[in-house]
Amino acid sequence: MLRATTATSPTESPAAFGETAIGMRNIAWRPRAAIVLLLRAVAVAVVLVAIWQAVVLIFAPPVFMLPPPARVFTALISRPDLWQVHAVTTLTESVLGLLIGTALGVLLALAMSFVPLTRRVLLPVMVVSQAVPVFAIAPLLALWFGFGLASKMVMATIAIFFPVASAFSDGLARTDQNLIDLAQLYRAKRTDVVALLRVPSALPSLITGIRLAAVYAPIAALIGEWVGASSGLGYAMLFANARAQTDVMFAALFLLAAMSVGLRALIDLLTANLTPWAPETT
Hints:
about 280 residues; mainly alpha; MetI-like fold; 11 helices; about 0% strand
């Protein structure tokens, strides 16, 4: 005679309790990844500044070619417009482009998952669109949308939606086939399969795509500002380059790098506990 078996609770099984505790610890401590990223970025920046200072002391290049770090820091704090106006403009363009590009990428990936024909038709178009350098279409975007916020936001959106759509679509397509077969065995609807199986399975891939997009967003906005703008870090760099103010250009680059790292850390913080069933290993 078969005996009915019951699920063992964590309090009944030390092993199960240990697994549960480890899982909860992973969920609780995963936001530390954002802090670790920031600390590593600061450490790398300190090392690079030290090497930079050593090169200046040893080779003594002209100031207009490679200014010392102290001069760049002075330019940064003596030009509050760099971060009060230009950095805020670039950050606004980057964040808006990141939000819109992520939304479009998610919608496109879901469309390709719901309708396989859409994937076969749109995927080549997406690849071809990325074969054209973003810098090459920047003048057209400036002509169509003007020199204001709109053209830079569109530029960032174009650069962002492809990695998001590509990563999310690949994750949706790599769902465990055994789970899909089991759902179909119970006559699950296609919408239920996508919503309850494919999307949760693809969330780690989506997070990876958004992390890449967070780094690309400020760069795309900067390229758009180089083509034509009235404010932004790209505009400030062109303005400084015309006057041989290399220290101001380096200060703008520092703000751009800090912006990229900050956006990546913010994404890590916001997505830390979205996938507790797929914890990151170190």
